[in-house]
Hints:
Blueprint: E1 2-11, E2 15-20, E3 25-33, E4 40-47, H1 55-60, H2 63-70, H3 73-79, H4 91-97, H5 99-102, E5 106-115, H6 127-133, H7 140-155, H8 160-168, H9 172-184
Antiparallel strand pairs: 1-2, 1-5, 2-3, 3-4
Helix pairs in contact: 7-8, 7-9, 8-9
Amino acid sequence: MQYNEWSLDYRPGGWIRARDETGVTVFFGVDLIRGAALPRVRVTVMHSPTEPISARSWRSAPFRGVEQHAAIPAIRDLLAKPPEFDGIDGLGEYFDRTQSQYGDMHGFVPTTELVADPGEPPAGFSVAALLADKQNPSSDEHLENVARIYRWAVASGLAPAPLIARYAHVPVSRVHRWVATARKRGFLPPAVKGRAG
């Protein structure tokens, strides 16, 4: 198994280019929405020159990472500048042509999904959500994600608690508490002695 990492580049006018290690490139056009403690990002365009925009493209695109990076003041200020490029066609060339000008405005989104060796992610396995939601471990979203990862690990013949602990950067004992809570709330079936699942 391997992580799938996205690299991000930013340009005036709200343009963000995200490229993953498998060669997929996605361009986000974002509107910064002020009024909250941190500006929220509304994605207005999503365009990929390397593959059709499919359900998998939407699922794997790093929306959360884009929002987090766009809230960084220096990046937000760059994105808020007037656009230098209109339209969608030719965005790749525009980003490449202006790399020396904006190259220091670059970021990474560490792992949005765990990708199996053939390149297909387990359904709904969101490591980014796991890392973000661990701050609220009793939320339905967090417990559903833990249950999803747990079920996938069991089906794959992997030890689920150590795997989740490794990805969430928490002790295995904490994962056991998450799993127990997920069972109590009905996200996982009752435990069977001597068997994970």
